[in-house]
Known about the structure:
By secondary structure, the first copy, chain A, is α/β, with parallel strands linked by helices.
Amino acid sequence: xxxxxxxxxxxTGPERLRPTIRDVARHAGVSIGTVSKAxxxxxxxxxxxxxxxxxxxxxxxxxxxxxxxxxxRKQSFTVGLIxxxxxxxxxxxxxxxxxxxxTDRRMQVFMCNATDDPALEAQHVESLLxxxxxxxxxxxxxxxxxxxIGPLAHGLPIVYVFSHADDPDALSLLPxxxxxxxxxxxxxxxxxxxxxxHITGPExxxxxxxxxxxxxxxxxxxxxxxxxxxxxxxVWSEAWGREAVARLLDGRVQSPDALFCGNDxxxxxxxxxxxxxGLDVPSDVAIVGFDNWDVMTLAARPPLTSxxxxxxxxxxEAGERLIxxxxxxxxxxxxxxPCSLVVRESTGR
Amino acid sequence: xxxxxxxxxxxTGPERLRPTIRDVARHAGVSIGTVSKAxxxxxxxxxxxxxxxxxxxxxxxxxxxxxxxxxxRKQSFTVGLIxxxxxxxxxxxxxxxxxxxxTDRRMQVFMCNATDDPALEAQHVESLLxxxxxxxxxxxxxxxxxxxIGPLAHGLPIVYVFSHADDPDALSLLPxxxxxxxxxxxxxxxxxxxxxxHITGPExxxxxxxxxxxxxxxxxxxxxxxxxxxxxxxVWSEAWGREAVARLLDGRVQSPDALFCGNDxxxxxxxxxxxxxGLDVPSDVAIVGFDNWDVMTLAARPPLTSxxxxxxxxxxEAGERLIxxxxxxxxxxxxxxPCSLVVRESTGR
DNA sequence: TTGAAAGCGCTAACAA
DNA sequence: TTGTTAGCGCTTTCAA
Lengths: 349, 349
């Protein structure tokens, strides 16, 4: 099986020997089975005995060996999290929510990073399966399709979160990018803005295409004209935000009175560019960003209204659904969760 | 003992039964012991037998149960990472390095978040000990002292990284903040700057005090005068960077020709403020930041020279030292690792 | 060169 | 109410 021969750390130091259930039994003057029953709050035991056993166990510093327990119970109370985004900005809140949820259930999470390396990913899956994880969560850098985890993990519960498995039977949890865009544009329209431009990232991101769709449909819903010169795909940077503003203002089109930006970096760049041209945000041009990344939204001048993908909640839900699946539920399909609008000064208030 | 009664997910679904070593033995027509020997590249086996066994194992999709192996070998090939920084900006690169290092050794990492909650931390340690982790890595939000992990984990190898255990025997790995500050000021002095100010964060951070010490000592080494009006502690924000610049330029002191900032956010704020006052960076005022956080350094105008704490390498080393300790080495004490200078336009080039 | 068997630490069904 | 015992899946010593 392991045909690689990388040396593993060897134990040469003193074994840290901990008391076993056997020791507890001996000290308490009862049988092993009785101790087990007492510690697992099982069936029928004299209250006195139970308490004595628990006391002895505590005194000895007994801590049951989960490995042995799992071996028997066929459940390890452990899940693997595989990320293809080397613990990046989007993975963090997801991890946080996931970990929180699982900790509540007394489960623990193995972190595995497999940034764009399918072989490494396979190795991780291999190890995790060896450790008999009860399930897997897969997360990715971008919300585009990715190949499913493959047949290695056949039958193992898997949840894809912020990552879209290219397998209709798999459960994929994603933010509703389109709905988020609608929220943004609706908000601007309600403020009375008539000329809303959309500056965004590269179109090969599924998220960009979805947000564009939301942008156009919300414009239509608000009976606002659609002008293709107002749609500017580009890259995810502040510099692009600044440049896009230059193009809009120096171009032949009428200047917009609002910007919906594909992320907060673009939005911040746009805000800077507008200020430097003497235009006021929000009175001349209102701005909505995307991601609600505090590092950007709070530091920008003025602070940015933004769309929050609620990634922490998404991570938490991934944990909940995974537990459902571990408990035997059959779940699947692509599911999108709503974004929310966070209003700050860049759209007035 | 678990005296809490939170329900754990229960297995009700179909058991995913995998072939055991027993199945392999049966199919290959040999004894269990022989299979074990074959798969673990152990001692004396007929080549033919070994190959046959390996073939059968592969065909059956046999994957040894690490839980059972660990039970016997008394090593789980698993470590716990406890963070008190809810997977924040500084924890990420550390995790990345750590995970990379341990993956090379075929070990896996349990992620535990215990943001400022000692009870939660204790619960995590408890669980990890139950899972018989081979060691623990503890990381924190700020490089200030924290109480050690307590007697629960007595005898277990522990490495504190980017966190300073209040226990001289514990191994703590930290960036050399003072040395980093020296690098920055030295660099500015070498560029011929004479009036170098230091805008930084709150003094209750040990890092702030250390960097200040480095700032003053490097000034002295360069035979530059020390002016207390040039030392401005404050908060870790862009807004503070802007305000500090205002104070320096509007104050009674002579304007500085260089700024060493306690982090990149302050540096960016300072750069913005200078530009908006018509001063050029770097020709009028050069700037060095701290953290080398690309989100800030690259987006700033001009891009910022900064001090890198090499956190990923620190994480990697934490893994290496932990493995040394697991292998029986006795390691301890507070150790600081060098920062490095990354030069960009804000100090010319 | 291979097989048999005694555990690793714990659970759970069955006896006493 | 408590004890006995047969495993869980694997490793390793000792015999064959």
